[in-house]
Amino acid sequence: MKEIQYKIIKQGDKMNRFWKEYPQIEQELENVTNIMKANIKSRETEFTKAISPLIDAGGKMLRPAFLVLSAKFGEYEHEKMQNLAATIEMMHTATLVHDDIVDESKLRRGLETIQSKYGKEYAVYIGDFLFCQCFIMLSEYNYSPENLKNISKAISKICMGEIVQYNLRYSKSTSVRKYLKIISGKTAALFAISFYTGANEAGCDDKISKLLGKIGYHIGMAFQIMDDILDFRGNDKKLGKGAQRDLISGYYTLPLLYAMGEDKENKIADILDNSSLSEGDVKDLIELVKEYKGIEKARELADKYTKKAFDNIDKLPECESKKIIKDVTEKLLNRNF
Question: pTM of the entire structure?
Answer without folding.
Answer: 0.90
